[in-house]
Design a protein that fits this description.
Elements: H1 3-30, H2 39-47, H3 51-107, H4 113-121, H5 125-132, H6 136-152
Helix pairs in contact: 1-3, 4-5, 4-6, 5-6
Region (Disordered): 29-56
Protein name: DUF2802 domain-containing protein
Coiled coil: 57-98
Length: 163
């Protein structure tokens, strides 16, 4: 799962939770006996005092308040998760740039990075060309580049001539 899918699921959770709770509240409300359901149903309904309707309304109001608190809590959790994802994404990008940045700065071209590494290790031009699948002339240029970097750093490199 990528970050967008996780955020989408986290955003959908409060809506699903509210829908479930509303369904439960509606189902509980529909279980009350209606008038005209026969003698026992009417008796149960008639025996139930009028404050019962007020009690049901109070119960629904309590459930709505609980749902609102739950939604607020889920939104806070979602905001925290989004901050964590943003932080992790920033750290991952920094590590990616740190890892690939050094190679890109030194080589200038990703297709010659491996050849540049071999040239820095001191392999000869033919070995570099064979291992990296490039021409001997390209390997010679890469080796010259690597030796030029050593010279810029104040190091004396082997000044071997290519073929």
């Amino acid at each position: 799962m990528d970050t967008n899918e996780i955020l989408g699921l986290a955003a959908a959770l409060p809506a699903v939770y509210v829908a479930i709770r509303l369904y439960q509240a509606r189902r509980n409300r529909s279980r009350r006996p209606a008038s005209g359901d026969g003698a026992s149903g009417e008796k149960a309904f008639v025996e139930r005092p009028q404050p019962s309707a007020r009690h049901d309304g109070f119960q629904v109001e309590l459930e709505v308040q609980q749902l609102r608190r739950d939604v607020a809590e889920l939104r806070a959790e979602l905001a925290e998760q989004r901050r964590e994802v943003a932080s992790l994404t920033a750290r991952l990008q920094a590590q990616h740039e740190q890892f690939h940045g050094g190679v890109a700065k030194a080589g200038g071209s990703p297709e010659y990075d491996e050849a540049l590494v071999f040239a820095r290790r001191g392999l000869d031009v033919e070995a570099i060309a064979e291992r990296c699948g490039i021409t001997v002339a390209e390997a010679a240029l890469v080796r010259a580049l690597a030796q030029g970097e050593k010279g810029e750093k104040g190091e004396k490199g082997n000044e071997r001539k290519g073929p």
